[in-house]
Amino acid sequence: MSSLPPLVLAAAGAVALALPLLSWALLARPGSAAVQARDNLVRGLHAGGAPDARARSGPGPLGALARAVTPAGTVARINRLLGTAGRPPAWPVGRVVAAKLVLAAIAGALGLLLVSARPSLPLALAMVAVAGVAYVVPELLLYSRGQERQQAIALELADTLDQMTIAVEAGLGFEAAMSRAGHNGKGALAEELVRTLQDIAVGQPRREAYLALAERTGVPDLRRFIRAVVQADAYGISIADVLRTQAAEMRLKRRQRAEEKAMQIPVKVIFPLILCILPTLFIVLLGPAAMDIADAFSGH
Question: For position 19, what pLDDT does the model report?
């Protein structure tokens, strides 16, 4: 019995090593010191007084190692994507970087196995492409989640501004109105408002906290509202007037976006109509007539 080629043995060893590393990256937990420090930082800032249990998950040693060997530009890009996606507690930067490297390693090892069993240039190029796709899969998932979160924030913004306007006109301050809207609301925008209030509570200047809110969400409408609030605070403009104007503008933009999507429906329906519905309709309507014509000509 002939021995296996060294390339196959190396690929099999890489797969056998990558699988436990992937499990380590996904399931590893930080040390007790890190958990204690994180709990001390967030104590009293969560609703109900208890930190979220999901915040206890961490990247582990493999995540720290993967982050150390990953270029700084890639880490910064992942950090931005995580900020847009709401920073899921179970997926810190180190864990995402480790998942990217491990997925690429598994795909590359499997590609080596296939190429060694059936060598060909197209197959090798295809395996390289698969490894590249596996490397960017975590970023694609974060980007998709970030897009969904931005759309949810844009939809919730008009109603939230209406609530804040009512609260300010009733006599509350801007931060008190933001706190009421954040704690009474549900969704991504309410979470971001609560986080902004937490940043202010731990000592961050209000202007920087507001600008950080606009930066990490990446929603143009929210960024425009934050800019108006910062200018009103700098020039002494009534915040109630700013809220009322911004709420009316957000409702108008939401209505315009809905009308735009409604106008796009006929264009999007054309291709399914041509490819799926019309051929079936022609078969149903013209099929019997075509069969009768064929029978008539065959009879002659």
Answer: 65
